[in-house]
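In the current project phase, we have settled on a layout for protein records. One protein thus recorded is set out beneath this paragraph:
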Amino acid sequence: MRSTGTALVTTLMLLLLPLSGCLQDDSPIDEVEEEVLPAGVFVTGADGSPVDEPPLPLVFNFSDVGEDGAEPSIGVTSSGCIFFIAFEKVMRSCDHGASWEDVTGPLCAFQTNDPYGWVDPVTDRIFNVQMQGLQTSWICWSDDDGETWIGNPHDSGTTPLNDHIKLASGPWTSSGYGIGGQFSQTFYDQAVYYCYNKLAGIFCFTSFDGGATFEAGGQLFGLATTNGGLHGAITSAPDGTVYVTPRVETPTVIVSKDNGLTWFDRTMGEDEGTPYPRKNSEVATDTQSNAYHIWTGADEGVYMATSTDSGQSWTQTSVRISPNEVISTAFPQVDAGDPGRIAITYLGSENASELNQSNIDGEPWDGNAHYANANVSYYLYIICT
């Protein structure tokens, strides 16, 4: 029936075309101008080249938190309140960013050498993590949208730490540390993870009491121990799989299936590589525990590999996320919702005229953001799929 209908419509069109001059005015028809995307808006395919698709309608509201905040963190509770870590301060907005207030509690750190924040997406617990020198971290947390706080001034595992502190939470599994988690769930529903780098390795710990203490864990072995142990954020999937991304030459993820008792690593992105000095890569997981790993490639574009089996295997042909017009990128971040629905941000530059000009070391610039001179401008790029 469908083919008959199609043929009928086509036939009617053919019959009507010769009559169009009789039924309509012969005055010239205004040509429709080809729609051109605004400057800075791109719709691209897997190779970074343009595709003929309309951009998603996006609206952004900019908000001034009113505080300085190097290396900031941001999170949102189910009430809609936004929390922004500005150095040692916890800034809160419950009116969509129209106004902000400092809600740091008296049991939180009064200074910081490295800030980090996390909002548990299941329990709404807000974590304010502040490194104290190179010895420990002071962690405080709130379960009532920042109205009251509890804190532990020495809350960083069993060994003194170095730097690059990270915290996250996720569901317990039924193996490894998850066995203990089945009992501790009566106290706090989620596993809480705390990682940092110490000299030549990544150290990760698991908390059974909601982040009040971190006694189980230690150094991760293998690829994670190279290149100083620097790493990206911790990510936990709905199925309990945990990901940590080491800062190594070949894009890599370190994966745990038992809440941090054991770990294995997987590599990808050999077709694109990484620049030097290397920067953090990041992982996000969607509602079905599919994983998305993004990093800056050797050509300074942002690339992605995916896993549909909870980190066991990854696509080996990298997808270019940034358009080819962006010749330098830094600080890529990723988040995910339903399967295939992801959002990525990064800083990027389209100043191609500066390529091969003198960088900060007097050498020809190849797009590496680490060596960009003062003539290179970077803007925030936001990608949605």
